[in-house]
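**User:** Once you have settled down, spend some time on the protein underneath, comparing sequence with structure tokens, and judge whether sequence predicts the tokens.
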Amino acid sequence: MRVGTKSVLFGVHAIWIHPFFVAWAWWKLFGFPWDLRLWSAFFLHDAGYIFCPNMDGSEGEQHVALGGRIMGSIFGSEWGDFTLCHSRHWAKRVGKRYSRLCLADKLAFVLTPAWLYLPLARWSGELQEYMRMASSRQLYGNITNFELSLLDSRNPRVWLEGLQAYTRRWVEQHRNGIRDHWTVVRSHPPQENALEAQG
């Protein structure tokens, strides 16, 4: 079973828990999500992971395409873009602004307690990849020395503390929609199928 499939079924993007953390984060940032289109986005934004052999590689980065395509076909291109741009890396790569869904998704990660996040990440096999990617430091702009020291730890709880601290600062700095100068675009280009999903 691919790591992306495991993530959506019983990992950190599990369909039975992650959307509710995103909803909670949205509520904290923007008020209660009354619009049913928001709830659709909460449940569909990570659907593309189900086919992915990795989470942060070139295939994993394409995960936005499926949810964006579904949301766009049901609710229109604005909602398709809203869902596609929940990834700040994807949004930056294609020259668009991150969406408010991105802010809620990142805050959802911060709100997920270590006692829940770490077992899910271990069971799905995501933890090793995430920790390896963090140690490469290619994803982080404007990182503090303290956060960096935590991210360099081999202790998953310490590593998570560092990543959540960095992510919380990113959300706080960008919650009003300012341009994202922190995010570093990864070296692999998006593939055609995901570009087509932008419509």
Observations:
- The chain has one domain: 3-196.
